[in-house]
Amino acid sequence: MQTGKFDKFVQLPGVRNLWNPFRAWHRRFTEKQLKAMGLLLDDCLNEHEPVVAEVLKKLPKEELIMREKRIKRAFDLSIKKTELHEDLRDYDVWRPYITSRINAVQKQMADEREYQRD
């Protein structure tokens, strides 16, 4: 994975002490917001990105249907300005069903580009 200037900055000893509490807060905040809408983190990925679109094509039909239902429910809750009932919030928002497949699809797409060049 490529590291940028920000990653190097965060690794500095004084900055790391300030960054870690913020990172933990951001993780809790994100989890709370996703659970309020009944979404998984992967539901928020841009489906128009070529890699994500390719992964979505390869998802099992049941997983794709569940994703669409979660997004529709979140939209409905947002329009109604309500949140998902507390009893339905006991799930792992970090469960990767798209991001776990992205590396394989990126490798496949790179192989296809390499093959087309030859």
UniProtKB/TrEMBL annotation:
Family note: Belongs to the UQCRB/QCR7 family.
Membrane topology: Peripheral membrane protein
Keywords of the record: Electron transport, Membrane, Mitochondrion, Mitochondrion inner membrane, Respiratory chain, Transport
Matches recorded under InterPro entries: QCR7 (IPR003197), QCR7_sf (IPR036544)
Record protein name field: Cytochrome b-c1 complex subunit 7
An annotated GO cellular component: respiratory chain complex III
Location(s) in or outside the cell: Mitochondrion inner membrane
Main localisation: mitochondrion
An individual GO BP term: mitochondrial electron transport, ubiquinol to cytochrome c
PANTHER family assigned to the protein according to its UniProt record, in alphabetical order: CYTOCHROME B-C1 COMPLEX SUBUNIT 7 (PTHR12022:SF0), UBIQUINOL-CYTOCHROME C REDUCTASE COMPLEX 14 KD PROTEIN (PTHR12022)
